[in-house]
Amino acid sequence: MMRLALLVSAFLSTGVLAQPSADELRRAEDAYGRALELLEEDRPAAEALLEEAGAIWLRAEAEGARNADLQRNIGNAALLRGDLGRAVLAYRRALELRPDDARARQSLEVARRQTRVEWPDPSAFGPAGWLGSAGSAIPPLVGLLSALGGWMLVWIAIGVRRGTIGRGWMLGLGLTALVGGGLLGLLGGLARATPTNAVLLEATRAFRGPSEAVYEEAFDAPIPAGTELVALEWRGDWVECLTPTGDSYWIPGARIEQIANRLPD
User: Fold this and answer.
1) Hey, which bits of 140-191 come out as E strands?
2) If you compute the radius of gyration of the chain from its CA atoms, what whole number of angstroms results?
3) What does 68-132 look like in DSSP terms, one character per residue?
4) Distance between CA atoms of residues 51 and 86, nearest Å
5) Are the C-beta atoms of 258 and 231 separated by less than 8 Å?
6) Which of 116, 125, 118 is nearest to 216 (CA)?
7) Which of these, 104, 8, 5, 11, lies nearest to 66 by C-alpha position?
8) Is 226 left (phi over 0), alpha (psi -120 to 50) or beta?
9) pLDDT per residue of the chain (265 residues) written in tens, 0 to 9
10) Per DSSP, what are the bridge partners of residue 240?
11) In the sheet that 238-242 helps form, which strands lie side by side, from edge to edge?
12) How crowded is residue 191: how many other Cβ atoms within 10 Å of its Cβ?
């Protein structure tokens, strides 16, 4: 139990926390140690102790503790009681704080092996799947302005051919369309939410749009807890996410937590 003892010592010396107290942190350490002893013979009692220890450590995090050891402890307690979402999130946060933490990386791989996600290949949906994958990587305003600019250039070319528009006008209008479209497209790209790494805390169904009443389900099974996501855009209570294969889908925002949003500067 040396690792946990050192963690308590670090809290006391830095004075980061007013709560939990040193006694509570030691109680978490003791609860975790007893849970390890009981895992084989009394699983329910062990899980209750793990939940007690995890709750104290989560309170320490909520109070502002920025500590890779703390995050790893939260992950260990969560993993042992089967909470894959919280475990993956904690290990990822530990690695954000200490990228060379070999124990956190090893534990993260253990948790990932228990989170089996088989994302569908966009080609399985035919041309629409590939188009959806490409569209998810391009801000919508950029695509729209590109289409309008191309349409404008087609009509300018027709006007020149018929002699109703001079070449100078064609060049001026063409440059205006390209520059204006480029600037507006850039603004659209900047306005779009920056992709953020996040973790799904509990299994949930995904949909093709931000409403389960309007849109059909994106996949034939719920996405499992512990899945690591790229959040693209928040819209009300929903968040648009991206699969590793490039297909986009929507899930309730309350089901995910961003990796960095509780790690203060």
Assistant:
1) none
2) 26
3) HHHHHHHHHHHHHTT-HHHHHHHHHHHHHH-TT-HHHHHHHHHHHHHS---PPPGGGGTHHHHHH
4) 12
5) yes
6) 125
7) 11
8) left
9) 334 333 433 443 333 444 578 888 999 999 999 999 999 999 999 999 999 999 999 999 988 888 899 999 999 999 999 999 999 999 999 999 999 999 999 999 999 999 877 766 544 444 444 344 444 444 444 455 555 666 666 666 666 666 665 555 555 555 665 555 555 554 444 434 444 589 999 999 999 999 999 999 999 999 999 999 888 889 999 999 988 777 889 999 999 999 885 544 3
10) 233, 250
11) 248-252, 238-242, 228-235, 196-200, 256-258
12) 9
Q: Torsions phi, psi of 237, nearest 5?
A: -90, 10
| 204: DSSP letter | B
Q: How many residues are there in the chain?
A: 265
- Structural tokens at position 8: 């308590």
Residue that has been written with the tokens 């059909």 in this structure:
216
State the chain's maximal CA–CA distance in angstroms.
91
Using CB atoms within 10 A of its CB, is residue 163 exposed (0-12), middle (13-18) or buried (19+)?
exposed
> What is the identity of the amino acid at 25?
L
